[in-house]
Amino acid sequence: MIKIANFYPAQLNNNSDGGNLRALVHRIEARGLQAKVREISLGPIESLDQVDIILLNSGLNSSLPLLADDLIEHKLEHLKSALARGTSVLAIASGFYFLGKKIHLGEQSFSGAGILPLEYRESNQRHVGNTIVSFSDLEKPLVGFANHRGDVLLEDGASAFAQVIKGYGNDQEGTLEGCRLGNIWATHLHGPLLIYNPHFADYILAKTPAAKNLDLNQKDMDDEAEWQAHEKIKERAMVQ
User: Fold this and answer.
1) Nearest to residue 31, comparing CAs of 239, 216, 208, 237?
2) For residue 154, how far is the Cα from the chain centroid?
3) Boundaries of domain holding 28
4) pTM for this model (two decimals)
5) Distance between CA 110 and CA 220 in Å, rounded?
6) How many other CB atoms sit within 10 Å of the CB of residue 236?
7) Running along the chain, 240 residues long, what does each successive block of 10 average in pLDDT?
8) The domain spanning residue 50 has which CATH number?
9) 3-state class (DSSP) for residue 152
């Protein structure tokens, strides 16, 4: 069994990112395994120590103060414990901003969870378009759709999630996309990301604590539709 915690589904539900959960469940069940999904809402929670994957999808920037406060007050120690155990985290756009150290929304600035070495600064500059990135652990690139307003500022020495080949990254000029720290993958790529990139979905599954006790080898999985969508995004990115 692979256990997935879907954080803040009422607030983090934009840009079709809910498809990431469906993609993971599909690829788990297609292997003849069981997926157990737990929704994590506002307020106190029990331990996350048995969770294999945590999902934080994208939402509205206006919800970030609420989510940052809730995560810090009710969930941060549980999250740190899960990360120490090896739990994987996929966080999309605003879903990772409040994992960083500081968030700046207009005249308002407040602290994030302090897990990721970054700050987010909202602006009127919107980064929108199909995007291709190089992810160092995989031979094939990742594709998705960027749609975010403002810049992510990585600390010196911090690792980006990927390098932009075509499209948009953390800011208007740079080639860095997202942030990576251990088993946390933080990216702006929508799509949903894991439907357009089945190889990355399998990569995440292979990194989970449960993987060492399960057979995750490919089981004659039909990925034709996913790879067709992947190639269409690549084509659109190259001509935009």
Assistant:
1) 216
2) 16
3) 2-239
4) 0.96
5) 48
6) 17
7) 97 93 95 95 94 97 98 98 97 98 96 98 92 97 96 97 97 92 98 97 95 78 91 90
8) 3.40.50.880
9) strand
